[in-house]
Amino acid sequence: MAISALQKARYSYTPKLPPALRGDLNQITVTLGAATQSVANQKELKELFANTYGAPVATVGSGKNPDAGKKLTLAVVLSGGQAPGGHNVIAGLYDGLKKGNKASKLLGAKGGPKGLIDGSFTEITDSFMDEYRNTGGFDMIGSGRDKIEKPEDLEKVVAVVKKHGIDGVVIIGGDDSNTNAAVLAEYFKANKVPANVVGCPKTIDGDLKNEHIETSFGFDTAAKTYSELIGNIGRDANSAKKYWHFIKLMGRSASHITLECGLQTQPNLTLIGEEVAAKKFTLDQIIEQVASVVAKRAEKGMNFGVILVPEGLIEFIPEVGALIGQLSDVLAHDHDGPQAFEKLTGLDAQIGWLEKNLTAANVAVLKSLPTDIQRQLFLDRDSHGNVQVSLIETEKLVIELVKRKLKTWAAEGKYKGKFAALSHFFGYEGRCAFPSNFDADYCYSLGFNAFVLFNAGLTGYLSSIKNTHKAAEKWTAGGVPITMMMNLEQRHGKPKPVIKKALVELDGRPFKELVKHRDAWAIETAYLFPGAIQYYGPAEVCDQPTKTLLLEKS
Fold it and tell me: Rounded to whole angstroms, how far apart are CA atoms 203 and 537?
């Protein structure tokens, strides 16, 4: 396999472990605390997870461990979208497993959960593992978005586990994937299958976190990768002095990435979806806010700037969110017979059909949107007919509506500047980057710790590394029951147990830090240029966690 010079150099990087995970495995033990309960819907979830609900929080510490050397066969699954550091989770798990007993085996499920359902594995060996240490991507074994929740799929997994003598399954994924981990752990317990399940928290969106999961892996690297690009654009904007750059950033359900990048680069405006929802901003109010920043800078002769837009902004706007919700419903459940809408040609005919099936308020919102956005709402739908919000070019919507607003103000004599805008979307650019030192260390620790939890006989847990705002020498290790993080949410009209998403907290320190500087950054050209992720150099430069984490824990 051809490799770059950087990749070759990264192979030699040795990830750091928390003190509790170092040394002889015979001296690493797990202690359990008091029983726990879910964040909400305790009665219903206790019934759904009768065998695993209420498990105690686990803490890794020192003490005698007579089971350290037992021979195990574990299966590892990469689930969902890619995030930097996934290979290091596997590396940590592999090294812990082999340190316990060299005869132990690690099987990689090919293509994600489907590989586990179908029993399609590749055995991970020393040489195979060494090709992927400290590298980005999920290409080592591949990932997928299949879910392990249907009875027939759960039964298939049981058969696969028995056939291959698998003692445990590690699921590396986000909130949905680890909800599946909890379901699988419960199914194993209920059916007396002697295999345990442990998850590892992954998502660059940063919305899988709580008291025990301080950050999801990949967030650090993705935010730094995007911030480098935003800084480059800020430098370009201040050089050319003639373009407004509207940058959409990944994160449909939460605006953590956008907030972190705003703190790292200091653009003129950082829109936060959670603030829009909390304050019930209309689309017009958001456009007025953006246009006001453009106009104020124009008064100072600065017809350029940088604005950050979260991917999910459009859903946070109450009236647009209501439109998308009803559109998904009527298009997924075609009221006029199978594919009646699909047979229509021309925008006018489609709008006419929707006028009969949408509320008057939603029709009004729909007609207020630019034609291109209307078409995206109709055409970019998933296999169930639902609108695919991630494919809507929100940044272009904002540009078009700001352009309209400024044209009106110019006619009224309120604006005399020039407005030329460029759009960008940073998403896939950050998902498979080389993991930062922080993510390389954090992911390796999550994987090694997952092995320790298996070794202790735990199931239905998420690997937890804490104190991550400090140096790795002060990190602690443990496990948190997945049911502890769950609530019930309406999915496709039915209540479903899921891990509760962590949204940007408007009373949290990271958001308050943004608000503190927002007015000044709007008018000033205060851009920061973070540069490339630093792998080499002093620790205070290359080992730093995100600003979000530092502010939350300070």
Answer: 27
Cut 0.70: pTM above it:
yes
19-218+435-491 and 221-311+393-431+508-553, same CATH topology: yes
- Determine whether 176 is an active site residue: no
Domain ranges of the chain: 19-218+435-491, 221-311+393-431+508-553
User: Which structure tokens are listed for 426?
Assistant: 């940073």
Residue 389's contacts (CB-CB under 8 Å, 6 or more residues apart) are 252, 311, 312, 314, 315, 324
Pick the closest to residue 218 from 203, 229, 230, 200 (CA basis): 203
Q: Are 466 and 214 in contact (CB under 8 A)?
A: yes
Helix (H) / strand (E) containing 495:
strand 494-499
> Longest Cα pair distance anywhere in the chain, in angstroms?
81
| pLDDT (tens place) for every residue of the chain, 554 residues total | 678 888 888 898 999 999 999 989 999 999 999 999 999 999 999 999 999 999 999 999 999 998 899 999 999 999 999 999 999 999 999 999 999 999 999 999 999 999 999 999 999 999 999 999 999 999 999 999 999 999 999 999 999 999 999 999 999 999 999 999 999 999 999 999 999 999 999 999 999 999 999 999 999 999 999 999 999 999 999 999 999 999 999 998 999 999 999 999 999 999 999 999 999 999 999 999 999 999 999 999 999 999 999 999 999 999 998 998 888 888 776 555 446 777 888 888 888 888 888 999 999 999 998 888 888 887 666 655 567 777 789 999 999 999 999 999 999 999 999 999 999 999 999 999 999 999 999 999 999 999 999 999 999 999 999 999 999 999 999 999 999 999 999 876 688 999 999 999 999 999 999 999 999 999 999 999 998 877 777 777 788 899 999 999 98
Q: What is the Cα 406 distance to its own chain's centre?
A: 35
DSSP H helical ranges for 64-112: 86-100
What architecture is domain 221-311+393-431+508-553?
3-Layer(aba) Sandwich (3.40)
Task: Tell the CATH topology of 19-218+435-491.
Answer: Rossmann fold (3.40.50)
Catalytic residue among 167, 176, 205, 441: 205
Q: Pull the structure tokens for residue 162.
A: 């028995």
